[in-house]
Amino acid sequence: MLLIILGALVIAGVSFGIYKFRCEPKSQPLIPVQNISTTKTSDETSNWKTYESKEAKFSIKYPPTFSAMDKPTFNPTGSSEFKIWSDNYKEIPLKDALIPQRGGYVFINSNNFVFEGNIDRFSEYVNFEINHFGFNANGSIEPESTIDGQKAAKFIYKGPSEVGLLEGQTLERALVVNKDGVPYKIDLIYFTQETDLARTLNKILSTFKFL
To answer: Average of pLDDT values for 182-186?
Structure first.
């Protein structure tokens, strides 16, 4: 009789334990809380100067250590030219052209009739320059590039060339057309080993906006 009572108590205890296990809420695994930084990434162009030309219909920013033309020059054909150059920029004459002896610059040429406002024909223009001006092409056309939201094409030339580029110089050329169909040619020229300058020139290009 005693064994029967003890057995019943054991069974009741086990049953109660199972019931309690099933009914009690399960403890959730601890999930480590990640520290989320709310610090905003600083904009290195925030203290840059801004140039704006309503006549040439563009604006662009550049570092305070750089210099820029007071205003674009306009040719009889209606095209305009504008330049921004680095603090260590120096030019020397060569074959009736001005090229930098050191440093680099951004050159913006708008409404140049050569481009006819057709981005898809940029490769034809590249081949024309290679054949007529002795440029050494190095790189590839990037037809999916954009400048201020507009479709653009880019190419890279390596010096020397018969006109304009010295040994060791790089010319990054971009062509973009604004919403009115006006073409813009934007050149970045620097010595290849000046990687920091190349990055800054490309950062300047990234601030280009149409007006």
So the answer is: 89
Phi (first) and psi of residue 8, to 5 degrees: -65, -40
Cβ distance 170 to 177 under 8 Å?
A: no
Question: Are the C-beta atoms of residues 207 and 60 closer than 8 Å to each other?
Answer: yes
| CATH code of 82's domain | 3.40.1000.10
User: Residue 201: helix, strand or coil by DSSP?
Assistant: helix
Q: How confident is the model at residue 102 (pLDDT cuts 50, 70, 90)?
A: confident
**Mean pLDDT lowest among 7-16, 165-174, 190-199:** 7-16
Is the predicted pLDDT of residue 20 greater than 50, yes or no? no
- Alpha carbon distances (Å) from 84 to 2, 67, 167, 203: 104, 6, 22, 13
Give 80's pLDDT tier (boundaries 50, 70, 90): very high
CA distance to 33, 103, 119, 177, 189, per residue, from 89 (Å): 52, 4, 31, 29, 11
How many structural domains comprise the chain? 1
Range of the domain at 74: 49-210
